[in-house]
Design goal:
Layout (H helix, E strand, L loop, with lengths): L1 E5 L10 E7 L7 H12 L4 E8 L2 E10 L4 H15 L4 E5 L5 H19 L16 E5 L5 H22 L7 H15 L2 E5 L1 H6 L3 H7 L7 E8 L9 E5 L1 E5 L19 H16 L4 E11 L11 E3 L5 E3 L7 H11 L7 E6 L3 H7 L4 E5 L2 H14 L3 E3 L17 E2 L7 H10 L7 E5 L5 E2 L5 E2 L4 H12 L2
Parallel strand pairs: 1-6, 2-4, 2-5, 5-6, 9-11, 9-14, 10-11, 13-17, 14-18, 15-16
Antiparallel strand pairs: 3-4, 7-8, 8-11, 12-13, 15-18, 19-20
Helix pairs in contact: 2-3, 3-4, 4-8, 5-8, 7-9, 8-13, 9-12, 11-13
Length: about 475
Amino acid sequence: MEFSIKAQQLQQQQDTAVLYIGTKDTAPTASLLAALQQQCLKNQDDFISIQQVIDDVLNACALVCLDKTDVTKLKKVAAKAAAWAASQQKLAVDLSALSATEAQQFVFVFTVALGDAVYRYDEFKEDSKPAVLDQVSYYGSQPLEAQLRKAEALVYGMNICKNLGNAPGNVCTPTFLASEVQKIADQTGCEASIFDAGQIRQMGMNALWAVAQGSEAGAYLLQLSYQGAPNANDAPIVLVGKGITFDSGGISLKPAASMDEMKYDMCGAASVIGTLAAAAKLRLPINVVAIVPTCENMPSGQAVKPGDIVKSMNGLSIEVLNTDAEGRLILCDALTYAERFQPKAVIDVATLTGACIIALGHVAQAVLGNDQQVIDDLMAAAQDYDDKTWPLPLFDEYKEQLKSNFADLQNIGGRPAGTITAAAFLSYFTEKYSWAHLDIAGTAWKSGADKGATGRPVPLLLAYLCQQAKV
């Protein structure tokens, strides 16, 4: 899909659908549009589409009436308009009735909504039907280039995240994920480092290896580095993503129902890869490193067993009471590895706990951490892009639930406060830097008729990086 900005008045064309943008107070100056605006107001609606005749040819036409102050409402109406626009081949968007601020906001939100509306993952379908829309032109005198570039970068990153998440487990293996990281590095000018199972074990990542050893798919630690800061030695933001490409639960086997969705257990990895790719596309003046520990969690004669004790990279011993609490095991070694970058901040992203869905449903992801400023910055970024996020406490008292009779830690804390005790476990491996943890178990994908990866929290993470880069 190609986007363009035209600093001129819109002239209707027979082969181009038109989307007019007004507000509740102001509509584009034309009698037809004024009538449509009145119909929107009468029906208490914010979007209406019709067919109009131009030179004896029927053309698609629609009007959006914006609420100027509410980003959530703007996203909803943009989604309606994008769903309509996806069935058009060419689209012209008239922004002439908007102020510069309104036009910039709409271009960003609508471009992202269009990316979502035209997205398809149908490479395994014989009757695949790609979206029709291939050209979008914005008409207005406002400065729109920066917002369009940012939106295109976000769509690019979200699509990477969605594609990796939606790929079946027999395709998106740890080896495939490693090859995709190398491919993205080549495309974006970043640097990739790929450490195999032998190197992982040499580095003392025994917690990661404990999870990986039950599968024949192998294990990797993936590192993707983007150097965008004027000073190459500036402390980077480090993003760590859980990369379990399929999670059977291991010996603590999951129920069969919906187990197919455990291909999404690497959406944390997909999101940090997509975010770094988006930051590189935007050429943000900031240094960013993405770290992905990746393997499968499978039952076999070699699999880690409940009651086994493993020693993590930082020297702490861990009693594995439940092999289905494997995400924290692979993350703890990756978080220890992150120390070597002397990071400005570390943010890990993981589909970590079902308890997060019980707490927050499928609306918001949870954020916890050891640095209130990092948490506050993430919350502000969440509001910027309306990627809903909510903080949970991380009091020291929760660590009591992780005490083991036989090791330094146990990998589960029981049913109470499951999301918090999982983060409390990770906190033992993040004491040397500022850190925040995002539990995206309820937001990384949708089930049912709309089943598929959402691309979240790439919007939150990119907004955070833009905020830190001051752009």
